[in-house]
Amino acid sequence: MEMTHDLIVIGGGSGGVAGSRRAAAHGAKVAIVEADRLGGTCVIRGCVPKKLMMYAAGFAHQLADARGFGWSDVQARFEMSRWADAKAREIDRLETIYDEMLLDAGVESVRGRGRLLSGNEVDVAGRRLAAPRILIATGGAPSVDAIPGLAAAMTSNEVLDLREVPESLLVIGGGYIAVEFASILAALGSRVTLAYRDSFPLRGFDAELRGRLALALGERGITLACGVALAKLERDAAGFALHRADGSVVRAAMALNATGRKPNTAGLGLAEVGVQLNTRGAIAVDTESRTSVATIWAVGDVTDRVNLTPVAIAEARAFADTEFDQDPKRVDHRVVASAVFTDPQIGTVGLNEQQAALLGPADIYAADFRPMKEAFVGGTQRTFMKLVVDGLDQRVLGVQMIGPDAAEIVQCLAVAVTCGARKSDFDRTIAVHPTLSEEFMLMRAPVRRLAKAVQPLAAAVSG
Ligand SMILES: Cc1cc2nc3c(=O)[nH]c(=O)nc-3n(C[C@H](O)[C@H](O)[C@H](O)COP(=O)(O)OP(=O)(O)OC[C@H]3O[C@@H](n4cnc5c(N)ncnc54)[C@H](O)[C@@H]3O)c2cc1C
After folding, report:
1. Are 44 and 170 in contact (CB under 8 A)?
2. What is the SS3 assignment for 45?
3. Any idea which residues carry the catalytic annotation?
4. What are the Cα distances from residue 326, in Å, to 4, 194, 318?
5. Is the peptide bond before 142 cis (omega within 30 degrees of 0)?
6. Which of 15, 182, 241, 418 could be bridged to 299 by S-S, CB 3.0 to 4.6 A?
7. 452 confidence band (pLDDT: 50, 70, 90)
8. Phi, psi at residue 236, to the nearest 5°?
9. Is 342 in the pocket of ligand 1 (CB under 6 A)?
10. Does a cis peptide bond (omega within 30 degrees of 0) precede residue 434?
11. Whose C-alpha lies nearest to ligand 1, atom 3?
């Protein structure tokens, strides 16, 4: 079979672009196939525009706080259409940069929908590409089938293109995308109801963080319609009506479906060439991202491992280094820092308290306080920090925080957790004062000891 390239990458998002560039840097002749816009979910309709919307929302509280710090005549009105135009320009700029980066790397950019013809061939609108290796990085998309009627609601794709703040908004879902948009749109002036089935949002996160976030969202004026299963969504002249299992109905002018995402596997020709899916409908891969077909790899959200941009990038680079630089690498999915960009923010890395409790003895350290800036303006929001420490060897296995700048703070502490720092390393670190993060260095005695003695917990988070 005549090969046109050394590597064909399907999907020009976070994983695909990173993998193409790294493989090209190792000397491979690479083609990247993108059906929509270069940059993928993160740049075009995910992390980046969401964070730009979060920044816009943040001014609402800063303006309110400014009065407490002595500023007067603080009056401002948010014009979402101006934000939307500026956001569109910024996304265009970033997309151009992605295009140029691929060009500079010598990667051939092929526009169109890719479909596997065999373990070595891809069809793009009638053009046949062939290579000894294929990398699938097609990402995911919002799922619309959790309850009947969801298809009528906006998804995260459309909410990021709003040109007006909805007068009232029903956010359906309890995951990080749901709470982020609930928090952002409420700060921008929408009357937000957040509807989800559990008692608290963010299933899988530390229980204290979940409880404190629910409280904080309530204090920010968001109505939590929780603890009841959702039955169906209906659209009528007045807007949307969410019917719940207990017979209650929650109404709003607009609705956002944030019930989850599904891997983009349809139309790729996977079954025809023998690429197997797992029980969640994602492409099944081994620790080296290899699929059931020896010449095909898959990375990022389409594999539904840890669905975050830096993880997709790390998986793609590990693939490229392993296959094109004879430098075998694997991604460790156990210690991945992540953030929830609500107000207040959440930052987390490593084990939470509930995970630790299942594994072995642990010491829990915590700090719960009203930060100086908040106290000064008479605010009520508290900041909460937690360290999960191995009860046997004192390694810090988890850092959990809800409060201002939690994402930035936990990102830096993730280095310490990755390096295997012990509680004594935190204790001997001289703090920067006055900061919020210094509280992580000043936790003296555990607030709780989880007594189940089995083995050092470190085995759960590192090799
Ligand atoms: C609203 C939202 C907010 C998010 N916020 C964050 C955050 O704050 N931090 C974070 O780390 N992650 C965040 N994420 C998740 C992050 O965006 C994804 O984990 C990341 O984009 C996954 O990268 P990927 O390469 O797997 O897929 P994607 O970035 O989705 O890229 C896949 C690409 O493949 C293309 N494609 C699909 N099928 C084909 C085909 N057959 N042929 C050609 N091209 C195809 C698509 O058009 C797309 O461009 C967010 C996601 C959303 C939806």
Report:
1. no
2. helix
3. 433
4. 22, 49, 11
5. no
6. 15
7. low
8. -140, -170
9. no
10. yes
11. 46
